[in-house]
């Protein structure tokens, strides 16, 4: 990992002759897709849930778009205050093959075998994965050799023959979760909220979302250790039972 001015990162990595891409979040307050169209718009972003069971989730699907080296959108990237807008990367892979690899990462498997959506488009998450796994990240996301994530630069030594896989296939190591939890409990809380909304609406719909998040954060502060997803869900179930008694 290195910290370089964006212009210098662009110049140095351009010598690889690998095309430049932006992965754009379609959720949150950054409005990255809208900002791309405002500042550039020369290419059409492609939804990364296309040709998956979530193909219809167009309004929330992360997107990928090729960028020119002098794209005006890069000025917005350099100056934005948002940390969850997405990230930049370079890849030697054909565009369709890159997308195929992303399709294989729509969902991932947590250590307790819970299947969750993978928030790879969020730089706050991705940088921690890259920091923890280093070159091992190529086994998870093979196409990209150079990353620019929230002002940080990462290089991964990749191979050219990795085959796309069908989601969900990646078992997230407990070490990754522990490493991320040491910095911030938000990723696990976000995953728990998504799981409750999709798999346990009976719990999710009972509470105000702010209250539910607060209870999850409180549980993490009390335990001091990163529990697995099933433990968090059991805690919320017990809280709900107490509220109903």
Question: Beta fraction of the residues?
Answer: 5-15%
| Main β-sheet description | 7 strands, antiparallel
Fraction of helical residues:
40-55%
User: What distance separates the N and C termini?
Assistant: 52 Å
Helix-strand pattern: EHEHEEHEHEEHEEHHHHH
Strand order in the largest sheet: 1-9-8-5-2-4-3
Radius of gyration: 19 Å
Detail the topology: elements first, then pairings.
Blueprint: E1 2-3, H1 6-14, E2 20-24, H2 32-39, E3 46-47, E4 63-67, H3 73-79, E5 86-90, H4 95-103, E6 107-109, E7 115-117, H5 123-133, E8 146-149, E9 152-155, H6 174-183, H7 186-199, H8 201-204, H9 209-223, H10 229-244
Antiparallel strand pairs: 1-9, 2-4, 2-5, 3-4, 5-8, 6-7, 8-9
Explained architecture:
About 2% of the residues have low confidence. The chain starts with a strand and ends with a helix. It is an alpha+beta fold and 245 residues long. It folds into 2 domains: 175 residues, no CATH class; 60 residues. It is built from 10 helices and 9 strands. Helix 5 packs across helix 6 and helix 7 packs across helix 9. A 7-stranded antiparallel sheet has the order 1-9-8-5-2-4-3, with helices on both faces. It is globular, with a radius of gyration of 19 Å.
């Amino acid at each position: 990992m290195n910290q370089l001015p964006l212009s210098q990162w662009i110049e140095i990595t351009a010598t690889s002759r690998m095309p430049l891409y932006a992965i754009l979040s379609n959720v949150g307050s950054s409005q990255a897709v809208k900002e791309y169209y405002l500042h550039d718009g020369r290419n059409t972003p492609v939804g990364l849930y296309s040709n998956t069971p979530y193909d219809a989730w167009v309004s929330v699907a992360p997107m990928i778009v090729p960028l020119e080296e002098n794209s005006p959108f890069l000025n917005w990237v350099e100056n934005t205050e948002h940390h969850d807008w997405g990230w930049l990367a370079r890849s030697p892979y054909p565009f369709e093959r890159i997308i195929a690899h992303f399709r294989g990462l729509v969902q991932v498997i947590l250590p307790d075998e819970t299947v969750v959506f993978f928030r790879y488009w969020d730089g706050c998450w991705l940088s921690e994965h890259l920091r923890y796994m280093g070159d091992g990240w190529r086994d998870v996301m093979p196409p990209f050799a150079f990353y620019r994530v929230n002002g940080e630069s990462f290089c991964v030594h990749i191979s050219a023959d990795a085959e796309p896989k069908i989601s969900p296939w990646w078992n997230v190591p407990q070490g990754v979760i522990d490493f991320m939890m040491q910095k911030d409990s938000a990723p696990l809380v976000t995953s728990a909220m998504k799981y409750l909304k999709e798999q346990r609406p009976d719990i999710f719909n009972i509470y105000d979302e702010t209250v539910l998040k607060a209870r999850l954060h409180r549980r993490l502060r009390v335990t001091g250790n990163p529990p697995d997803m099933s433990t968090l869900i059991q805690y919320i179930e017990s809280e709900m039972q107490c509220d109903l008694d």
